[in-house]
Structure prediction request, 450 residues.
Amino acid sequence: MDSKINSVQNWLRNSIFLRVMFIGFVMLLLQIPIAMISGQIYERDQTRIDAINDITSKWGRQQHIIGPRLVVPFIEIHTWKNKHGHQEKTRKTRYAIFLPDTLNISAKIQNETRYRGIFEVPVYQSNINLQGSFKKPDFSIWGTDPNLVQWDRAQLVVGVSDSSAIQKQVILRWNKDTLNFEPGLGLGKTIINDTGFHIPRISVKQAVLYKFNIAMALNGSDAFYVAPLGKNSSLKLQSDWPDPSFQGYKLPNARKITAQGFDANWAISHISRNYPQQWIDDKFDYSKLNQSLVGVEFVSPVDNYRMTERSIKYAMLFLVLTFVALWLIEIFYKLRVHLLQYLLIGLGMCLFYLLLLAFSEHISFFWSYVIASSAVIMMTSLYAKAILKSGKRAIWIGAGITVLYIYLFSLLEEQNYSMLFGSIGVFLTLAGVMYVTRNIDWYNLGKRSE
Prediction:
């Protein structure tokens, strides 16, 4: 009876299959601290987002400029017969929208950084000039009697997504006239939550061509967009931001990016847009204007929260490779590493992500990565020296983990090729393990140990 008990105990102690199962269980157990660290990353990122929203709500949010556009009311008369056969007429006020014939936009954007606690929030100040011309509104396309057009009620409107960030009075030069804009879009408010400013009454009846010039100072953050409303539109952006991300339905025709900032130029014809130069307001889908926006987003070169979140996705792979290395050393050198020791080494590797997150909030991501990885490598190597009874074996473990962290950093840096590099790395690692263990007699390994 005692011999059977001893036999079972030896089997439990030396079974390769059970050993692998127990090590796998330790790796699954380590997913708990990894999940907790992932939650901490999300929480800190949300705190940063709250800080950004707090500052941008007072300074200025993303700016989308859609304008200028002319709004001209006209009377539409419907004639019909009632049930008694008498002719009756109804009059209804409609609004015709006209876009500029030419539109040249130039913007000089100066970026700066505001702080809320330890969080940096990039914002900007911009000086914008809109210059161009309108032709006299033509109602003949709709067969409207010119006498029914309310020329004296025409308005000029400019849509600005966050008009609370306008810094000073916006002035319009309209041919030889100088006019002050009023808040709101007046007759041009055709989109829910659309904001901006307008000229309540403007002359559009006498001349054939109306030249305009609008200058404004506008605060904002995160991004700057304009809509190319002109029949022929041009946009010139200048900024001191060194890492722009050009967005919108068209990329710049020409751009120059240096460490001191960027210059970008667009030239856009109305033929490439999905809307005409004039329409009647209630027959138009105004979302098309937003779909035609072009501009730039001011992207931070390194988002430490995104980088840390990406790095923790490889945590399971790191644990597997490290534990496989320890297990192979056990097999080749007839050692016994306790499962608790596996757990402690795994916890140390999990701690890397927490250190990376904490340091990256105060210093650059690169140096945070160097400090966190160096600390974990040193701690794991010293511990491995004690449990593996050899400084040489500990150096192997430390060197292997160092290669893993260098490999991970390359994956984080080369985001476009991370899938390719990751697949190749896993393949080579598996091939190496298969090569090293090719001559092991797994069936008799447990018996020899016994």
